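[09:14] KT: can someone run the structure on this one? pasting the chain below
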Amino acid sequence: MKIAILDLYDGEANEGMRCIHQLIDQFKSEVSFSVTHQVFDVRRNLEIADLSFDVYISSGGPGSPIASAGSEWERNYFALMDGILKHNRENPHQRKFVFLICHSMQIFCRYYNYAKVSKRKSTSFGVMPMHKTKEGKKEKLFGQLEDPFYAVDSRDYQILQPNEAKIWSGGGQVLCIEKERPLVPFERAVMAIRFNEAIVGTQFHPEVDSDGMHLYLLRDDKKKIVTEKYGEKKYFQMLQMLNDPDKIKRTYRTVLPDFLHSAAQVYNPVEA
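[09:31] RB: done, structure tokens below
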């Protein structure tokens, strides 16, 4: 089984890539067949995977998911995505699986017109509740998670106004949305979409572990974002949540691991 990691961080220091490697290493230890992975620096070095991989994990990243439209790296990226979509249509029993994280999901929604992508009024950062939709309560990747469940949110942009007709026509569903705030007159952002049987995306970061998030929250700039928007009490509540086995720890050990094992059912049905 070959896994491609599409690195969209553009050389920026982050915890996401460390955690993705960590989760893949864990997956390797849980299966009996051979698993290899390769990283492609999509934005900085214009690297891109080919169609020889079975699974593609596409990372989060900095900057605008709107301004990069038409760039060389995006042309390469969506040539790959077009190839995967075509392959899956023609080979429904040998599908290639894709997991899109945050920035990757935003550009995917924008490019294929699955939803509107726009800049937020302010940064969303911290440990946040994710509220399942009716369809999300049936989603196999979220089956072990409470409603709401908690995940790391880190974004300056948002996915709004999902094109539900297009999503449904491909066999997909909107899976969860951000917390409702009755006193704030803003539409809630879409936080996860299953586009079809093989492609799913989250605007939150299911790959980030509690240790990585703890380091982020201790940074002065990140603490300032949280305390200015939510208050100091909420900031310390977030730090406490990182030690709760039913919050970030459960999301970390559930969503991406279950995605990989789901892909393994197609790759190696005997073992599954």
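[09:33] KT: thanks! The mean pLDDT is 92.
[09:34] RB: yep, looked fine to me
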